[in-house]
Amino acid sequence: MIDDFLAHVLAGGTTEVEEAIRKAAAAEIMPRFRQLAAHEIVEKNGPHDLVTVADRAAEAHLTESLTALLPGSVVVGEEAVHADPAVYEALQGDAPVWIVDPVDGTRQFVRGEAGFCTLVALARRGELLASWTYAPALGQMAVAVRGRGATLNGQPIRSGSPSPRDVLEVASSHPDYTTPDQKRALLGLDTDGVHARPCGSAGLEYLDVARGLVDATAFSWEYAWDHAAGLLLVTEAGGAHTTVAGEPFRITGGNALPFTAARDRVTADRIRTLLRGR
């Protein structure tokens, strides 16, 4: 049954997952958008790392619905890993894994801004098979399936290549989330021909790379729920990703950081070189 479902998804059968994500957002996220009470917002690891009742409820909703779609699968969700870090180890197991960020861009959600999304990716043995990026307040559903391309609201999207004359727009890790070494690496982006700015929702930054609206990302953390969906989306739209070691980013971890995802291979290699300081 597992192999049948994976084959179904890889053949483009993503509708059931899309519907599960839409239902979770409609039930648990959007009724709380701009309606959060103070006690429904909690700091996890400081004032810049927030979780809300919507995050927890949406992850629980998705955990139930996604594992029902694929019996024998497991969920690696941001909130579940926060409660029990051992959950993250499932990324290296044999069972299919749903990688879930119920509300990516929680700070934006808390501020009542529309720039947040729900991220879901399906992987097995560390390989990304499909991903979904849903921004309910923006009415956007982006889907990527390995080997079949990427779509936004059902229409194919391509990242294209930046014009050689344009300044590259790069969404980078927010300074609040970087170590001194990572800050030094990111300073490599402070050069002519590059405009680096702190990222908003990582998932929506990846979507904009896949659409050709942002040229690259430069991120210094590797939690799979932030990156899995977007990396497959960018790749299937024609883009590329690489760590500073010149290797593809691995969702199972152990990556040399920072890393970049970009509209094309040339841009990815340029950003990697800048992050390496040469």
From TrEMBL:
Class of enzymatic activity (EC top level)? hydrolase
Q: Does the keyword Hydrolase apply?
A: yes
Extract the Pfam families matched here.
Inositol_P (PF00459)
InterPro entries from the UniProt entry: Inositol_monoP_metal-BS (IPR020583), Inositol_monophosphatase-like (IPR000760), Inositol_monophosphatase_CS (IPR020550)
Segments passing through the bilayer: none
What PROSITE patterns does this protein map onto? IMP_1, IMP_2
Its EC number(s):
3.1.3.25
**What keywords would UniProt list here?**
Hydrolase, Magnesium, Metal-binding
Top-rank lineage group of the source organism: Bacteria
Reactions catalysed, semicolon-separated, are: a myo-inositol phosphate + H2O = myo-inositol + phosphate
Protein name per UniProt: inositol-phosphate phosphatase
